[in-house]
Fold this sequence. Notes:
mainly alpha; 2 strands
Amino acid sequence: MTAETIYKxxxxxxxxxAGTENSARIKINSKLLVWANLIFVMEKHHKEKLILNFxxxxxxxxxxxxxxxxxYRFMDNELIDEIRISVSEYL
Length: 91
């Protein structure tokens, strides 16, 4: 959600966010995975969960692990900085 909020008004990107947990407000689904040409996840276990639950959709997907612990609150300043630094390496 934080990454989507950071980049949603940037005309260079079309961004959407979804979670891998049952408690996520918007849960990841096949349609979102097929829509994305680049997928960022916070931690390795998020990527593993996507591959396990959506093997066909992730077979050729570019999934990037940002190595950011999923411990922050929405729009936490430290999280914003970490996302911007990590994502900039791939854009």
